[in-house]
């Protein structure tokens, strides 16, 4: 299937200019602008981000997007509609200025900023889990959208989310290397909440330190980075690395983050209310 779009496309009866695109998790995000002046095109009436999905069963994609469209929370980017673009199922969203990853590409965050991001992210995840039995399963800075500042975030891209049955995810799913917990490397059920909390902990380290807690060695000798990350998740080396990276932060911060990424899920945070209580208890 050809992923290239022409300079102008039609979506739900309106013509949009294609102003950019970027590779996202399991698909591509297209930036579409609908001009209010059809002649000059100088002023835009609507600006959208539209994600098409690759390598997934389209019926399954629709099922997962239907989960997303039910979510209504201030810290969740709403899915406007499910449409078709370039012969693919597409998730249509309002455009935001950028992602948390865009900010982290320029600088690290203070603890105050990180605390705000984590609280809002956990509030969104708690809502989805408590009200809709839904786990996100791909939490990372690139899926946290912002409007210029990390003080107001929204969790985006619920396209690989899963309904949780008796606290467990029944089958493997896609993932982003570095943000999944060790138990998801095994072909057996796992806790959606515990998996998302692990990713929140890794994201906290990236916010504070600029990089995740993995050692990257020569790929020619040790294999692709994704393979190296998998090895470090298996042997627990990432925990030692995280401890070293968090040494300069206050003990309550280090303790909380390390509790999120514990290799044993039974010793990890397993309740968003408890995690939110502890986050709010650490001064900003």
Automatic annotation (TrEMBL):
Pfam families: Pkinase (PF00069)
SMART domains per UniProt: S_TKc
UniProt name for this protein: Serine/threonine protein kinase
Single GO molecular function: protein serine/threonine kinase activity
Domain Protein kinase: 15-284
Annotated keywords: Kinase, Serine/threonine-protein kinase, Transferase
Cellular compartments per GO CC: cytoplasm
Record-linked InterPro entries: Kinase-like_dom_sf, Prot_kinase_dom, Ser/Thr_kinase_AS, Ser_Thr_kinase
PANTHER family hit by this protein: MITOGEN-ACTIVATED KINASE KINASE KINASE (PTHR24361)
